Amino acid sequence: MIPFPVKVVFFRIWMFLLKLATWFLPLFRQPKVITGPGSSLVLCEAIAQAGVKKLLIVTDAMLVKIGLVRPMQEKLTALGVAWTVYDGIQPDPTIAQIEAGLVVLKRETAQAILAVGGGSSIDAAKVIAARATNAKPVAKMAGLFKVWRSILPLYVVPTTAGTGSEVTIAAVVSDPAAQRKFAIMDPRLLPTMAALDGTLMKGLPPPITAATGMDALTHAVEAYISRNATRATDALALEATRLIMENLPKVMAHGADEQARQKMAEAAYKAGLAFTRAGVGYVHAIAHNFGARYHLPHGLANAIVMPYVLDYSKPACTQRLADLAVAAGLASAGQTPAQLADAFIARIRALNAQFGIPAKVDKLRREDIPAIAAAALEEAHATYAVPRYMDQATCERFIAQMLA
Questions:
Q1: Are residues 241 and 191 in the same domain?
Q2: What average pLDDT is seen over the chain?
Q3: What 8-state DSSP symbol labels residue 175?
Q4: Are 60 and 120 in contact (CB under 8 A)?
Q5: 267, 355: one domain
Q6: Are residues 253 and 355 in the same domain?
Q7: SS (H, E, C) 114-158
Q8: Structural domain harbouring 218
Q9: Domain holding 277: CATH number?
Q10: How much is the average pLDDT of 257-265?
Q11: How far apart are CA 386 and CA 227, in angstroms?
C-alpha cells in the first residue's frame, strides 16, 4: 500500500496539472452577463435577436405556480418566440429528470434553452443542452472535459443568489440508485448569456435565502484557500466575500431590499467565476455526499460543513483565512493572522446560528460515515486542490463531529 504522504505528493502534482489546464479556459467562449432590474426581459430580447423561434424553458413547478416565469413568457410571445415549459426539475436533479427534459426538447424541436431557477434548474438545463448534441449518456459525461460537442444555445436567469451556475463550467447531477452525486465539468457547459435580475429574488423565503447565500460564500472561501487560486480568482473571491458579508444579513432581515438582492446576485456570479478556475474543496465533497445520501439541500449542507473544514484546514491556510476576515470587515488593530482566521470561522458559525442553520446533520448515521468519507475523498482528491489533505481515518473522525 502506498503511504499517504506519498499519495499527497501525487495529488499535488495532479492539481498542478489541472491548474495549468485552467490557463486555457479563456480560450473558450465566456457567457455574456447583463445585470440589473428588468435584465431578465432584456435577455428575452437577446434570444429573439439571435433568431430563436422555438425555445424550451427549463424550470421548476413552484416558479411556474407563483408566476415568476410569466413575464418572460409574455415577453417571448410578444417577440414571436414560441416556447414550451418543462417544469419537472426538483432539487438535486436526477438523470431521469434530465432525460425527461430531453424528450420534451426533441418533441418540440426547440432550438435553444432558457433556464429559469436556482442551481438545480440551471444545472439540469446545461446537461439537457449537452445531451441534445451529444449521444453519450449522462453518467458517461461525469468528470472533466467529457462533453465532446458544443451544447445547444443556453440562456440563464438565476432566481437565487447561490450556485453561480450561470457562469460556471460545471453541472451536478444526482444518481439516486447509487446514492451519489457527480459533477460534469467542461467549458462547453458555459451558458450563452445570463441575466442577473435581483427583482426576481425579492420573494425568496428566508431559509432558501440563507442556504443559497451561504452556498455562494462557500464558493468564494474555498476558491480563495485553494492551492490553485490565482491573482484573478483571489480578487473575485475577496470581493464576493465582502458583498455577501455585507448584504446577506440585509436580505435576511428585509427580503424586498432590491439593492441588496442585486448585490447578492453579483456576489454569487463573482464567486462562480472564482471557483470555476480555482476549484472548491472538502466542503463541497462532503456536502455532495450528504445531499446524495440524505437529500440535504446543497447550500444547507455546505453551510453546516464549512466551519468544520476551515477549522481543519487552518494550519495550512491561516493567512488566507485572515485575508477573508479583512474582506469581511472583521479586522481590528493588533490582531495576528491566527486571530483573524479564528474570527472569520467564528463569524461563519454566528451567521449559521443567526439564520437557523444547524451545527449538526440530524440524519447522519455513524454506520454511513466510512462510505461517505470514501466517496468524499475520491471526489476531492481527483478534482480539488485542498490546502490540507485528509486520509480515510482522518476523514471519518472529521465527519463524526457532525453527528447530532
A1: no
A2: 94
A3: E
A4: yes
A5: yes
A6: yes
A7: EEEECHHHHHHHHHHHHHCCCCCCHHHHCEECCCCCCCCCEEEEE
A8: 4-23+204-401
A9: 1.20.1090.10
A10: 97
A11: 6
Do 366 and 248 share a structural domain? yes
Cell numbers describing residue 238: 475577496
Q: Which residue has 427549463 as its cell numbers?
A: 58
Count of domains for the chain: 2
- The helix (H) or strand (E) run that includes residue 67 is none
Q: How far apart are CA 168 and CA 272, in angstroms?
A: 6
Which cell is 104 given?
420534451
Q: What order of strands is seen across the sheet that includes strand 32-35?
A: 32-35, 193-196, 154-158, 112-117, 54-58, 82-86
What CATH number does residue 138 fall under? 3.40.50.1970
Sheet holding 143-144, edge to edge: 143-144, 180-185, 170-175
C-alpha cell at 50: 439571435
* Cβ–Cβ < 8 Å for 153, 192: yes
Query: What is the pTM assigned to this prediction?
Result: 0.92
Give the H/E segment covering residue 344.
Answer: helix 337-354
Q: Cα–Cα–Cα angle for 29, 11, 25, nearest 5°? A: 10
Residue 153 · residue 32 · CB < 8 Å:
no
Between 302 and 178, name the one with better pLDDT: 302
Convert the pLDDT of each residue in 382-400 to its tens digit: 889 999 999 999 999 999 9
Q: Find all residues with CB under 8 Å of 32, minimum gap 6, and list them.
A: 192, 193, 194
pLDDT at position 179? 81
pLDDT at 1 over 80: no
More confident call, 6 vs 103:
103
The Cβ of residue 358 has, within 10 Å, a number of other Cβ atoms equal to 13
Q: Locate 142 and state its grid cell.
A: 461525469
User: Any idea what the Cα angle at residue 226 is, between residues 267 and 371, rounded to 5°?
Assistant: 105
Return the number of other C-beta atoms located less than 10 Å from residue 131's C-beta. Answer: 23
Shared-domain flag, residues 164 and 311: no
**In angstroms, rounded to a whole number, what is the distance separating the alpha carbons of residues 284 and 201?**
24
Grid cell 479586522 is found at 331
Beta-carbon count within 10 A of 106 CB: 12
Q: How far apart are CA 159 and CA 63, in angstroms?
A: 9
> Per-residue pLDDT averaged across 156-160, rounded?
97
